[in-house]
Amino acid sequence: MTHKSGYVNIIGNPNVGKSTLMNVLVGEKLSIITSKAQTTRHRILGIVNHDEYQIIFSDTPGIIHNPAYKMHEVMNSHIRTAMIDADLILYVVDVTERVSHEENISKLRETSLPLFVVLNKIDLSNQEDVMAMIVNWKEMLPLAQVFPIAAAHNFNTEGLLDRILEILPESPPYFPKDELTDKSMRFFVSEIIREKILLHYKQEIPYSVEVSVDAYEESEKLIKIQAHIYASRESQKAILIGKQGSAIKRVGTEARLDMEAFIGKKVFLELSVKVVKDWRDNENLLKRFGYEAN
């Protein structure tokens, strides 16, 4: 019996549903999901194991064409790596989005890797427009295969998975068969907190903060977690905390409940806010937060 293994790297502009697709294909919520752009900041691996294959999906940050901070440059470096070390590239497009893909297309034309263009959110469009988009993408990228899907509704994702399996090379598994991801529990804890910040705060707050898990103590029945939310300004700290601590309490409560569901144990979560100006350009802090350039 032959065994297939390979890396499938998921790329695209921000907010096109890459993380939703990743979670559906893996069968677990590994990437946080919100309606805001730049929700994904790190490259996250999700591993699908079967007796006959192992697929390593890689969810990358959305492509940032005009990086404003060193953090953005590091995020883009993950995308460049994803264009090199994959066995297959999934370029995800939101069919409702009217944006130019010209710069991305020029880079995709340069790759010799197998390429799938995944037209996501077709449930929000109509058949005529979707068919026109399929024809258009086949003209722009003649070597690519085009797949219309609705990841949030699990529509046509099984067909996509079947075609991915056909493309993957014969190879032994790259990871132990019981592994689901390459990220630590601390990473997922920080992402759960950041997801709640993205959901509950407006304007620049979600994009100006980062989360650091500084203590993670696990016993048989309880996990004690101490985490800091880093903000860029004192005014942001005040918004994050809220009147009499109401805002940060809501974030903490919702994050704790998600952590307990994810980990399967009771969690005691302690949250606080620190102000560090220009942390997004601070190389030492970025490394501490896991922003390592590839």
Q: Could you explain how this protein is built, in words?
A:
There is one protein chain. The chain is globular, with a radius of gyration of 20 Å. It is of the alpha/beta class and 294 residues long. The chain has 2 domains: 164 residues, Rossmann fold (3-Layer(aba) Sandwich); 104 residues, K homology (KH) domain (GMP Synthetase, Chain A, domain 3). Helix 6 crosses helix 8. The longest helix has 18 residues. A hairpin with a 3-residue loop joins strand 2 and strand 3. A 6-stranded mixed β-sheet has the order 2-3-1-4-5-6, with helices on both faces. It has a 3-stranded mixed β-sheet with strand order 7-8-9. It starts with a strand and ends in a 6-residue tail after the last helix.
Core attributes:
single chain; 294 residues; alpha/beta; Rossmann fold; GMP Synthetase, Chain A, domain 3; 6-stranded mixed sheet; 3-stranded mixed sheet; 9 helices; 9 strands; 23% strand; globular
Give the % helix: 25-40%
The domain count comes to: 2
- SS summary, helix count: 9
Strand content: 15-25%
CATH architectural arrangement of the largest domain? 3-Layer(aba) Sandwich
What fold name goes in the CATH topology slot of the largest domain? Rossmann fold
Rg computed from alpha carbons, rounded to a whole number of angstroms: 20 Å
Strand arrangement across the biggest beta sheet: 2-3-1-4-5-6
Q: What letter string, H or E per element, gives the SSE order? A: EHEEHEHEHEHHEEHHEH
| Helix-and-strand structural type | alpha/beta
What's the CATH class label of the largest domain? Alpha Beta
The end-to-end span amounts to 36 Å
Characterize the main sheet: 6 strands, mixed
The count of β-strands is: 9
